[in-house]
Specification:
NADH Oxidase, binds flavin mononucleotide, 36% helix, alpha+beta, 7 helices, globular
């Protein structure tokens, strides 16, 4: 892959919060998860599992975990990314987050839109709603569907604010 399409791909991922009503074929969702399997993980432990939720009632419960999670009910699909705390006790949050990010990129790659919905304040409730066992930590919940909006990119910090050359404090000139 040349640099240009790859850069374009990465720069055009957005949080999508408006979705078409159309159902998303399960095969397409599985294709995204199939790609997400290639996320890196400590010792290649792959301590992740995914729960794909299309059922409206269950999505409505997920949408109520906090006020910013309502998109789980407004999208046709929700996906919970679970990280196995037993399999990777010292890296499950990192491995799980990488799996979630790969999934988000894979969905974008396949023409689907998604938004990551915070699970940390309601981890027990998310686990309960999808029936996951205690040792699986829900690192992320995604609302997924065909995008019905094209949001502008959100502002990003300039390099001069975030890069240090050689040692901390030696910032790039603005
Ligand atoms: C850990 C995490 C939690 C987030 N939680 C929410 C959320 O609960 N609700 C929401 O609408 N967006 C949520 N987002 C999406 C962010 O608001 C979004 O990624 C950020 O504003 C940058 O916009 P962009 O994704 O379009 O680049 C979350 C993103 C991350 C990475």
């Amino acid at each position: 892959m040349s640099g240009k399409p790859c850069k374009e791909f990465l720069l055009t991922r957005r949080s999508i919060r408006k979705f078409k009503k159309d159902d998303v074929p399960t095969e397409l969702l599985l294709e995204a998860i199939d790609i997400a399997r290639f996320a890196p993980s400590a010792r290649n432990g792959q301590p992740w599992e995914y729960v794909v939720v299309k059922d409206r009632e269950r999505r409505e419960k997920l949408a109520q975990i906090h006020r910013w999670a309502r998109y789980a009910a407004e999208a046709p699909v929700a996906i919970v990314v679970l990280a196995d705390t037993k399999l990777a006790p010292d890296s499950y949050v990192i491995d799980g987050s990488l799996a979630a990010m790969y999934l988000w990129l894979a969905l974008h790659c396949l023409g689907l839109g998604a938004v990551w919905l915070h699970t940390v304040p309601a981890a027990d409730r998310v686990r309960e709603i999808v029936g996951a066992p205690e040792h699986l930590y829900p690192v992320a919940l995604f609302a997924v569907g065909y995008p019905d909006e094209k949001p502008e990119p959100k502002p990003r910090k300039p390099l001069s604010e975030i890069v240090h050359l050689e040692s901390y404090g030696n910032r790039l000139k603005a």
